[in-house]
Specification:
The structure is a homodimer of 475-residue chains. The first copy, chain A, is mainly alpha-helical. Chain A folds into three domains: 105 residues, no CATH class; 120 residues, CBS-domain; 162 residues, Orthogonal Bundle (Tetracycline Repressor, domain 2), CATH 1.10.357.20. Chain A contains 23 helices and six strands. In chain A, helix 21 runs antiparallel to helix 22. Chains A, B: InterPro entries: CBS_dom (IPR000644), CBS_dom_sf (IPR046342), Mg_transptr_MgtE_intracell_dom (IPR006668), MgtE_N_sf (IPR038076), MgtE_transporter (IPR006669), SLC41_membr_dom (IPR006667), SLC41_membr_dom_sf (IPR036739). Chains A, B: This is Magnesium transporter MgtE. Chains A, B: Pfam families: CBS, MgtE, MgtE_N. Chains A, B: One of its GO terms (molecular function) is magnesium ion transmembrane transporter activity. Chains A, B: It comes from Dryocola boscaweniae.
């Protein structure tokens, strides 16, 4: 029996790995699937293709989404062409945004709409809104009148709001019936939406009165009235709420689902933990990418030209900041020509500053994201980081100063080294705290390009401080 | 009604913010709580203290954990001293590891064990194992014989395994009973563990046969036998499974809970989505921190001395790599003394390489974490990154070469600049892909210090390439 029980996850993982293996070890397989003739000297891939066809048929949509994400463009196209139409919508909604572009490339608007049809209406809307092609008009046209009105209502919510990720399908019950009635109603209904752990108790005009957990129904006698056992003070969200803050609340309260209500208290839909898990994955991932100036959309398998375009802007910015740093050194070329050792030593000052600054800014960006930092503790954090920098600067700056002294037999140069390191570490600490905080104050995402900015400042600052001090004290 | 409904989350958020505000705007409040005399010229904080006492009483444990995480040490101690003993265990389990140290500092082993007592046994064990104090022996001594055996069984699981985060409390039913019997059994039981969305169907000796969703119980007629409606092929985990991989499976299959079975198919416990959400937060957070050489345990509010110690090692490593880079430049001091412009230009080459390398390595580390990269596509990725680097190198290197030519009126210097940038971008791309992959092959976490390593390589490489080329072509 355990063998059967384990089949599920293990076998699926093996199936996923097998598809990747076949597609990646023999280029001819993808060509074969896509109908291009394989080169005559390549082993004919018919068997492999047949195997993939079987695997694709067997694997559920989320697994296919994972495999598609892990393939380069050509192989991705080949695999996608094997996915049956009725599965494509589900694969799309499970797949990362980074691969959408590739997947829908060869599909007509009509095919795409057909693929969306098996999905829940909220998922259809989400895809229609955010797929890299505007389908909203055509989707609306296919919907019945009443649904169209519902859709129009949620269209204006921001992509990172609760409204954009909420689920419309909710089960509502009245407060004045008994649990027996509720249970009969559920049996009649025959099925419940995924991740249903509670029903919503509303008035006739949809005003939310409370929530009725499935466990509550099961644990209480059937004659109990809903009103007596419902939770009349549940955690609710507004559609305008930020999705990351909703995620924190889900985590804090261990929620599986929660009601979304409009400003008048009417039930609009619900938020489920599976969407929240996606938000959490996406949120932290994006922070990581944004710090280094990587776009949230860049796919690790995107073709070269796309990747070049995605990184173009940040590279240009980086080049400009590097150029500024270079010009700062240029100001001191006379000093360097007098004492060429400065050229060897200056990257140490800049590098240590960059490293420390990046550590500080990473901590602050994450602490801001997790809402650990409030207005009241700004000054504490600045002072703390300055304290850490001062100690590290004195200790390690002292070490480097001594090494410099020994190396160049020049105590004054050693002293300048130590002083420059202390000062640049202080700059790094100060900026590492202030940049994300100022960005937040200005209403910007503190993660975006923070690493690029801090490195620019500590480089330029490091060169200026070190060469400036050298000019004053050594010439 | 909507006002009441919203009370919950909104009011709690306000309460949390209010505690932080009071504690952070007037240092005397924390001193007052901790029984130290406030300075005579500070406004007497009695009222503020009284307000905090009320708020602490009102706020649930997860909210208190959040507030504690957002406070500096002194204020944290003050707030913790106000948390009632019966709430402390719950706050501890909800709080980030980074603050455990601070919280338990003033508690005796006895107090701690008392605080743990209200928790589920799995949470008690988790804390006893991972709190920065060894409580396991004393905890075991307090447990009844049978529980002790169960505990001993899970003690050897790794911290990042399913075994360490699983929940022991499961409801099991037999396959040969009807749903009516199950429902009667549940009513008799009176309550179910949190996040119960399914019961587990087992044989008498605990071998897992299948799962019975609560919705299944509600949707089918009471006379249906469990055997007929149970899911006999559910997703299960082994206690040795990696928690991050389990999290991916939860995300893929939209699970709320899942069985954990031992190698013989016996049910050991279950994994719930609330633990999974914590794993996801922690996982991505740690990746971010590890890349820059920040320890996973560093708390943004840790006192200076602790922060210094936490960053000591990486700073030393960074200093060594910077020193190596400096010595590489030192090798070319003769070249620089002939052409001092090289000193100004070399950081551009190094900086661009560092930026590109960091972008590449971030993408690869995340793709590895999300299991998007398999052995089969290594070479594709290397070629792709090299392609991107080549194009960017030629374009931006060309631009910088032209600027250099204009600036120094030296076409050869411009040529060297372009060539050096192209080469260093290639080094950055190659190393950005290879470092994390080699680390993974060696069984190491590819995130740890990856940013520090790539920067060291692109700095040293950049200086060597640029100054080397200059020595060959310009002298």
């Amino acid at each position: 029996m355990p063998a059967t029980l384990k089949y599920n996850t293990k076998q699926r993982a093996q199936d996923r790995a097998r598809i990747l293996q076949i597609l990646l070890t023999n280029k001819a397989v993808a060509s074969g699937i896509l109908g291009r003739l394989p080169a005559p000297d390549v082993r004919t891939p018919e068997q492999d293709i047949a195997e993939i066809v079987t695997l694709v048929e067997r694997l559920p949509a989320p697994d296919l989404a994972d495999v598609l994400e892990a393939l380069p463009t050509e192989e991705r196209h080949a695999l996608w062409s094997l996915v049956k139409e009725d599965k494509r919508g589900h694969v799309l909604i499970e797949a990362a945004e980074t691969v959408w572009d590739d997947l829908i490339e060869d599909m007509s608007d009509k095919d795409l709409l057909k693929a969306l049809r098996p999905l829940d209406i909220d998922d259809q809307i989400y895809l229609a809104q955010y797929l890299p092609r505007d389908l909203m008009g055509r989707l609306l046209a296919t919907l019945p009148q009443e649904e169209r009105a519902q859709v129009r209502k949620v269209l204006h919510y921001d992509k990172h709001s609760v409204g954009a990720i909420m689920d419309f399908e909710v089960i509502t019950v009245r407060a004045d019936v008994t649990l027996a009635v509720v249970q009969r109603f559920l049996r009649l209904r025959g099925k419940v939406p995924q991740n249903t752990d509670k029903l919503f108790v509303t008035t006739r005009n949809k005003t939310l009165l409370g929530e009725l957990g499935l466990t509550t129904i099961l644990l209480h006698p059937p004659e109990t009235p809903v009103l007596k056992v419902m939770d009349d003070n549940p955690t609710c969200f507004a559609p305008e709420d930020d999705d990351e803050i909703a995620a924190r609340t889900f985590e804090r309260d261990n929620l599986v689902s929660a009601a979304v209500i409009d400003s008048s208290g009417k039930l609009m839909g619900r938020l489920t933990v599976d969407e929240i898990v996606d938000v959490v994955y996406e949120e932290t991932d994006n922070d990581l990418r944004r710090m280094g100036g990587l776009s949230a959309e860049e796919d690790v398998f995107a073709p070269v030209t796309k990747a070049v375009r995605a990184r173009w802007a940040w590279l240009a910015i980086n080049l400009c900041t590097a150029f500024v740093a270079s010009r700062v050194i240029g100001m001191f070329e006379h000093t360097i020509s007098q004492l060429v050792a400065l050229a060897s030593l200056m990257p140490i000052v800049a590098g240590i500053g960059g490293n420390t600054g990046n550590q500080t800014i990473t901590m602050i960006v994450r602490a801001l994201a997790l809402q650990h930092i409030q207005a009241g503790n700004y000054s504490f954090l600045v002072l703390r980081e300055l304290g850490v920098a001062l100690i590290n600067g004195i200790v390690w700056g002292g070490v480097m100063g001594a090494v410099t002294w020994l190396l160049y037999d020049d105590p004054a140069l050693g002293g300048v080294m130590t002083l420059a390191m202390v000062l640049n570490l202080l700059v790094a600490a100060l900026m590492g705290v202030l940049i994300p905080m100022i960005m937040t104050r200005l209403g910007k995402d503190p993660a975006v390009g923070s690493s690029v900015m801090i490195t620019a400042l500590t480089d330029t600052g490091g060169f200026f401080i070190f060469l400036g001090l050298a000019t004053i004290f050594l010439l």
